[in-house]
Amino acid sequence: KQDRSVVKDLERLASDKNEVIGRIHALWALDGLGVLTPEVIGSALSSGESRVVVQALRLCEMHLASHPELLSQVDRRQLGNPAVRFQWLMSQFRHPGWAGAVTARPLVDQAVAACLSAPCDSWTRIALVAGCGRHGLVLLRRLVGAASQLADVRFDELRDWVGVISETIGRGGDAREVAGLLDVLDPGRPIGKLPEWFSVQLSGLVGLDTGLRSRGQSLGAPPGAFAKKRLAAAWRVVAGWSARPPVKGMRAVATRLLRSGPEDVAVPALLDRFANGDLVALASLSPFKGHGIGPGVLKSYTGMTAAGRRVALDVMAADPSRAALLLDAIGGGTVARADLDPARVDRLRRHADAGVRKRAVSILADLVPKARRTVIQKYRVSLGQDGDPRRGREVFRKNCTACHRVDRLGVDVAPDISDTRRWSREQLLLSILDPNRAVDSNYFSYSVVTNSGVVHTGLVASETPTAVSLRQPEGKIVSVLRADIEVLKSNGVSLMPEGLEKNVNRGQMADLLSFLKNWRYLDGRVPVKRGRGSK
């Protein structure tokens, strides 16, 4: 009704220290009437009641341009409350002082002091970085400098902060900021005496590399005037951390970072780690072109587990010269044809290198799926066989668990197939052998090509205005910011590849069908049905 006769009463209620809920409602009512004054807001900000302070902070944002002193009226002791601190950081973003580097420094110092005074959750850490906007380097320097003076440093939080700030700077791509950041993160210049400080610097280097890679760059050749000798020395330190980490947990992080390092430093270090069975090191070799990588991977191939072999196949296929070696190994029997699932066969047959494509079509001809109708007709004999559901469980474990989950086996990537009682055996057979026949559009495969040329394929798990997440086999989730996406397209087919018959004969198919129909009866409490519905 916009009844202004109640304004005085509302102002008295908004300043009543004995009220909480009523005071909050009065503040918002005054704002709705357009008569909320800085004086009333200031009174609420200095309140000792955290719920009132949080709402007053939200209301003060539109007044900060003309009354920036409002934020200083919050009792600093109130910033120990997580809700108050979070909102204070978010509201501080509206302060006019952020317009210039000089006027921003006091605001950064206040924000850093508030966050270092008490443990912070992930949302508060995000609020700190978001609130400080384009002054990321100032924030990082102040944060690291202030933390280094503390007797008890919360290194887990600090690593997260430094990583996120560094990634933000990397995404911005400003040459001066990147060079200034590297000066702080240079492992040749330790920040503090404790070895945990190295993990903080490593977290920053990883964040910077992640940000730069989103722009098609990397930490291997960063923008800016950072001295090449210092950068080369820093990479040697990272390689050393991969072999002998000063703090637990640094090895895997340093090993992954080496994917962006100079080849003369990274490849020997990664091959050394791979020789010790490190699959992270093996995966990190993928971007490199070194001639020693392919022979080294193939030499160890026969002694690898199934998981290791999958990584090895991906590394070999990533480079044309290594892909040629892989095809030689397949032709010579070093790598079994059965190790290549239909998706990897298809990758080689569609390789970017024409020579690899031609050889793959020839060598892998017997692995290329035949016409679906012919295959289905051949496998119809499985429908009349009494399969063994326990043997079928092993067929499922070997061939299907990367995307499907049944009886506590596998992961939920593809459609739920656990309730197969309403499915006939023929329906199951058709879905297995011809996955594209009637696929739900929600389960179409999508490909994302990033600005740096990396291709990700999977089902769209979720999407927001800022990011797309893909669900991949083995339950992996890959999230890509929309700003980093060059191409997003539907492949128009199921994520499940054709060609399962290459790994499953007709007897095994009968076992698999029996397992899918009868898995719930295998605990012994209910006998396995042998009637028409379970065969």
Tell me what you see in this structure.
This protein is α+β, with helices and mostly antiparallel strands and 535 residues long. It has helices spanning 7-14, 21-33, 38-45, 50-60, 82-92, 101-116, 122-131, 136-147, 155-172, 175-185, 196-213, 228-243, 250-257, 263-275, 279-284, 293-301, 306-317, 320-332, 342-349, 354-363, 372-379, 389-399, 425-433, 506-518, and strands at residues 405-406, 409-410, 444-450, 455-463, 467-471, 477-481, 485-494. It has a 5-stranded antiparallel β-sheet, with no helix packed on it. Helix 1 packs across helix 2. It is globular. The termini are far apart.
Mean pLDDT score: 87
The share of residues in helices is 40-55%
What distance separates the N and C termini? 72 Å
What sort of overall outline do the alpha carbons produce when their principal axes are compared? globular
Cα-atom Rg, whole angstroms?
30 Å
Beta strand %: 5-15%
Major sheet details: 5 strands, antiparallel
Spans of at least 5 consecutive residues with low confidence: 531-535
What is the number of beta strands? 7
Q: What is the topology, as strand order, of the major beta sheet?
A: 6-5-4-3-7
Q: What structural class do the secondary elements suggest?
A: alpha+beta
Number of H- or I-type helical stretches: 24
Question: Which labels suit this protein?
Answer:
single chain, 535 residues, alpha+beta, five-stranded antiparallel sheet, two-stranded antiparallel sheet, 7 strands, disordered C terminus
